[in-house]
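>> received
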Amino acid sequence: MITLYSFPNSRSLRVAWTLEELGLAYQCHHVALDKGEGQTAEHLARHPDGKVPVLEDGELSLFESASICRYLAEQYGDADLLPKSAAERAQVDQWLSFIITEVEQPLWLQAKHKFALPQERRVPAVLPTAAWEFQRALHALERRYNNGQANNDQKTLVGDTFTLADLFLTHTLSWAASMKHRLPEPFATYHAHHAARPALARAIEKEQAAKGGD
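>> returned
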């Protein structure tokens, strides 16, 4: 049995979404990070920093959303979320790296200094710079649509198939929208298109149900 340790609206949603896209059976276990459950000895044995997501698949235990999702797609997928072609697989990895390091990080920096860090560790002065960095990353990503690699109507980052790169970018843009960032075209349309996938709705429902059941 696959077990996902999760917290709603966190990076664990990427894993739940991947599991739903793959049609896999799994148990979703809510970790009440807001109540300190991440710092219990039990959870620290799963994740050394007490965070989510953590995935257990038999004897295998993994943390970090990109590693987990990539494992699931490779182990259980049919070459949609993670293409068989070495070149396209490398492109997916390229975009995953860019999304995590360039697009997501300014958002997470804002979140940390708005609510995630202890009050005494927050530095409000960094917030405008983080917002600028996020918009700069979006503009860099937008060039991908305007430099001959793709046209503005293309709805996927790699080839013509929804991959992990699209899943991660859509999730990250959802964070941005929730934080009131402006999403320029074509990303507002891109986000709306992929956020309507049924697997995402099922993943959100599963995480919320796990929270309610604990």
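>> The chain has a mean pLDDT of 93.
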